[in-house]
Structures are given as C-alpha cells and as structure tokens.
C-alpha cells in the first residue's frame, strides 16, 4: 500500500508542476491515467516483477478498464439527465431488473405509461450518447 501511495503522490506532484500545460479536463485525465500506469510499470520493472509479455498484457487490460470506466461514467451521467419519471422507470427496468408489470403496480401507473417512459428514456439515451462509446461498450469490452 505504501508503494501505491508513493506512486500516486509522485504523479500528483508532476501534475501540480505541469498544471499550466493542461488544455482541459480530458488532457488532465489522460495524463493522470498514463502517468500512473507508466509509473507502476517502471516500479515493477525496477523490482524485476514484470516480464515484457506481462507488461503488454497488463497494458491492454489497463486500457480496457479505463475505457470501460469512461463508458459507464458517460452512461450513468446520461441516465441522471433523464426526466424524473423516465429515469425512475429506466432504473427499475434496466438496473433493478423489474418487469413492466411490476413497475406499473409499484408506481401505480398504466402499463402503457411504463412502456412510454421506457421508450422515451431509451430514445433520450440513444440520442445523447455518442456512437463510439456505445460501440466499445457493446462489442469491444467483454462484460464480466
């Protein structure tokens, strides 16, 4: 744990020193991801704990996890932007796994209303999210 804290501290010190050079939050996030990854790899190499083939495999795994986290963040952020009724129905269907009938009973709504809210939510999300993250989320990143 001490090594991890040292790595993070070193990276944040570098960020602070270069703070004027970041053009925006995306540049800062990219720098943080790459700096932490590279600093960890360098530490493992120095300690002779990482073989070259392991580095390549870990590099891909880190990238997959970063992309997966970014896509999930974008999806959850978009869900939060839904109108309240749409969001409530969407969460109950797609996160809680409830059926349309269960939701209609629970919220005292007509089944057609639940379906309408579900469709509105899906349309909103589909229009709001960029196609690339959805493509990555659905086809490139394996789900657990």
Question: SSE layout and pairings?
Answer:
Layout: H1 2-17, H2 25-46, H3 52-80, H4 84-95, H5 100-107, H6 111-128, H7 131-140
Describe the structure.
This protein is an all-alpha fold. The chain starts with a helix and ends with a helix. 8% of the residues are buried. Helix 3 (52-80) packs across helix 7 (131-140), helix 4 packs across helix 6 and helix 5 (100-107) crosses helix 6. The longest helix is centred in the middle third of the chain and has 29 residues, at 52-80. The protein has helices at 2-17, 25-46, 52-80, 84-95, 100-107, 111-128, 131-140. The chain is built from 7 helices and no strands.
Report the uncertain regions. 135-144
Please compute the radius of gyration using only Cα atoms: 21 Å
Q: H/E element string?
A: HHHHHHH
The amount of helix comes to over 70%
Beta-strand share of residues? under 5%
Average of per-residue pLDDT values: 77
Inertia-based shape:
elongated
Supply the number of helical segments.
7
Biggest sheet: strands, sense, closure? none
| SS content category | mainly alpha
β-strand number? 0
Distance between the termini: 26 Å
